[in-house]
Amino acid sequence: MSVNSLFTKSGYVTAPLANGVGRYIPQCLRMTIKFCKSHGGSRGVREFIENHLVEFARQNPGTVVYLKPRRHRSPVVVAEYLNEGREWMPLHDMPCEEIIKWLGVLRTSAGYGEMHYRSYQHTDTPSIQGPWTPFTHQPPEKNIMTFPNDACQDPPLLKPSATEIIKKMYQNQS
């Protein structure tokens, strides 16, 4: 167990409020953008407010955007969600385009933040081989091949598919 997992919340992966089973409910309630009117690190935030804030608010009517000017402080955005979660992100010296992208990320997230996810299943003797994937028992030469490749043959023990059987029956008829 790492030290980080001692201090992070833990929980199960669930859909908040059965979201998407009837209609979509945006999880981000409000965003508070705190910035300084004269600080150099707030230049990108001020540009976003002047040029893109009205369009952002028009495109996202379910999210309330508050502006809070503060003197001589670095800019931050605080997003508050339906599950009473809060995410805080510094915007110091970020250009306007990057701020638009990060606000989109905060707007579409569910507000759980960093969480150690638990599983509903548990075993006392976990597998030491790791999880199975379709590529587990494949030869390593396939990693550098380009497909389709004639040298790569199917395994001889593989039974023909139903489609191949029907194709052979059709060819035998004619």
Automatic annotation (TrEMBL):
Keywords: Mitochondrion, Ribonucleoprotein, Ribosomal protein. GO terms for cellular component: mitochondrial large ribosomal subunit. GO terms for molecular function: structural constituent of ribosome. The keyword Amino-acid biosynthesis does not apply. SUPFAM superfamilies: Thioredoxin-like. It is found in: Mitochondrion. Gene3D superfamilies: Glutaredoxin (3.40.30.10). InterPro entries: Ribosomal_mL43 (IPR039927), Ribosomal_mL43/mS25/NADH_DH (IPR007741), Thioredoxin-like_sf (IPR036249). SMART domains: L51_S25_CI-B8. One of its GO terms (biological process) is mitochondrial translation. Residues 37-110 form the Ribosomal protein/NADH dehydrogenase domain. The keyword Protein transport does not apply. Belongs to the mitochondrion-specific ribosomal protein mL43 family. PANTHER family: 39S RIBOSOMAL PROTEIN L43 (PTHR21396), LARGE RIBOSOMAL SUBUNIT PROTEIN ML43 (PTHR21396:SF2). This is Large ribosomal subunit protein mL43. It comes from Folsomia candida.
